[in-house]
Amino acid sequence: MFGRKKKKTDLLAYIREGREMTQSEKLRLIVSLSIPSILAQISATVMFFIDASMVGHLGAKASAAIGLVETTGWLMGGLGAAANMGFAVQVAHAIGANDFERARRVLRQSLVCCLLWSLSITTVALLISGRLPYWLGGTAEIAHDASLYFALIGVFGIFFQMEALAGSMLKSSGNMKIPSILNIGMCVMDVCFNYVFIYVLDMGVVGAAMGTGAAELVTAVLMLYFLLVRSDMLKLKGYPGSFKPQTDVVSAAFSIGAPMGLQHLLMGGAQIVSTLIVAPLGTVAIAAHSLGITVESLCYMPGYGIAEAATTLVGQSFGAGKRALTQSFARMSATLGVLVMTLMGVLMWVFATELMTLMTPVDEIIAIGAHCLRIEAFAEPMFAAAIVCNGIFIGAGDTLRPAIMSLVSMWGVRLTLAALLATTYGLPGVWTAMAIELTFRGIIFLTRLMHGGWMGKMIKD
Fold first, then answer.
1. pLDDT, tens digit, for every residue of 37-68?
2. Fewer CB within 10 Å of terminal CB in the chain, N or C?
């Protein structure tokens, strides 16, 4: 194991040292960085899968309560992730340029800025939690549980922000192993905590939020320890410096993160509108929609794992000024992502019913959910292209145009079609709109990738 770790580290050093790499070495590096991240992504999905299954066995009302506010929770997480990446991309570029002093300077400021940002998001979440279920079209029978769940998720968002920031920084340095191990551990803790809070303490929906929050807290502490104390490239122990935010770092973070934040805001808003479209279809449709999305995430998590590896490799290659290497990593990562998620799409189509059966004992929810999953399976190859290409563009600091492209796709294609198809075809119509939009988004992202404009004016090689 030590030999494999050393070889991966040596290959990453090739980027900073300007040494040539063969195609097989590039592929080996992509795969070696992707596998830990894929495992962590899959384990996180399994965590949500088990969470949803635990709540699903409490009945359709419990699933609908979480499903109603789930998309708004994703919106909060997306805004936090945008802030994290605004700083993490700068760290990847600094490491690629062998400027470790600047990397630590950015890290210090990120800790302060992201903590303040997460506190702001939590405050907003608490202020709107009481009315949110009604704004989203929920009924009184599920509004109470939905409101409490959302408020708790908002409070625990502080832990999630710091855990995700530390993980992003470690990944930017090429360390995928520690964040992946800790995230897998968080999944195990989440299941254990949820069992205690949901069943032993009989807290139901609220228990699901409490279990997740407890797991996030423990993981955040461990992730920060490995970043600030143990990381060879980024540890702050023994490297004193100012934590005061400075204009150059914050403005660069804003230029990278703001388009991502706006994208998450409007994409999250689109998800909320999707919830509004689904809500009138009834409690069964809401539950099937929420559980189906959880099942589908098993399919696309490998794509996100490869995207994270691509962000690291593209970020460091971009920082080193290696245009040809940056482009090579980008195209190889996108190809790998499409191949892996195509296979996952086939498996999801074949086992759709069995997967939904694990989520809920309600036959009506199983039937409609399985039908929707089989519709979505056809979109997985191009969904992979969109996911990995977005990771590539982030690594290069190119976030504005991809954000605009995503928003046009979501609002102009998915929501328009969903509103039209839902009235005639119900929930399967909504998922058909989703599949068409993801295919369209993948095509336009691949077009931008091949065009090369995302690399900007980088001319070194």
1. 888 777 766 666 666 667 777 777 777 787 77
2. N
Lowest mean pLDDT segment, chosen from 81-95, 101-115, 205-219, 255-269:
255-269
> What pLDDT was estimated at residue 187?
84
Query: Do residues 278 and 135 lie in contact, with contact meaning Cβ atoms separated by under 8 Å?
Result: no
Rounded Cα distance, 460 and 456, in Å: 12
